[in-house]
Amino acid sequence: MAGVSEQVAGAGRIALGRSGITDPIAGHCASVAYLGSAYLAAPSTVMKQIFHPTDLGHGSTAAFLIALRIAATAHGTLTIMHVDGSGEGEWADLPGVRKTLSRWGLLKEETDVAGFERIGMGVRKHLMKGHRPVSSCLNYLNGHPTDLIVLATHQGNTWLKRKVAEPIARGAGEPSLFVPEHAKGLVDAATGKVTLRHILVPVTVSPSPQAAIDMALRTARSLADGPVRFTLLHVGTETTRPLVDLPEHAGWTFELMLREGDTVETIVNVADATRADLVVMATKGHDGFLDMFRGSKTERVLRAVNCPLMAVPA
What we know:
This protein is α/β, with parallel strands linked by helices and 314 residues long. The chain has two domains: 155 residues, Rossmann fold; 132 residues, 3-Layer(aba) Sandwich (Rossmann fold), CATH 3.40.50.620. Helix content is 26%, strand content 28%. Helix 5 links the parallel strand 7 and strand 8. The longest helix has 14 residues. It is globular and about 55 Å long.
């Protein structure tokens, strides 16, 4: 397997070219990335509308913490929805926003209304009766567009197992952050401290990776509280290399990597070897990443990576 990486402090439009840089993972020389045109401004928008469907299970905690942290940092609105098929669900069962913010030290106590207003975020909670969580969530999203869906994926007798999580993401057509139950989270439950130092973005010519790159930048802007390293991974050859636009941003560095081999295995191996905190991938409708949930490739990525995975429509 061939592989290379090169780190650049700033960036512009880049493509994968040839040089003699040693890949710290593969341990030998091959193709690397080079810097092209002038610097571009980083996307200025942040994620304001966050939608978090939950089954109220323990496996959904990490997803809730990420959704809350993004909404609080961006002064946005967090919508929490649970579709109760048992008829026994209660309002108190929904995740406690103020309780969590108090634990993080952002509120003096749960009843600190003035402190909550200073944070500048909104919270909407919906406890809905029914046995069709997918259609209930999609019906809501049809009238309430969102910037990001944050949801857990796990096995077991819960409604957010993959056959529910994937149709919600696909039907909504919005960027979706999947947080596997076994994966490490991005937010410490006790302190609210964010661990987002390395984002892996697989890139290819089709679908265009630019939407995924832009979303990775928005995520870093909304979550990260320190330096962030972005690894742009292309699994293929020099002839299939994509062109992408990268920003100049203090504290951000970009590592450009070209590898050969099985796409899924390479993504998983690089994510593990580089200790990625988040993987961000572009989708292309029914021919793209999410469509493979019916098969084995994407299922293998979600089961194997030890970090959350974000799917972004191209």
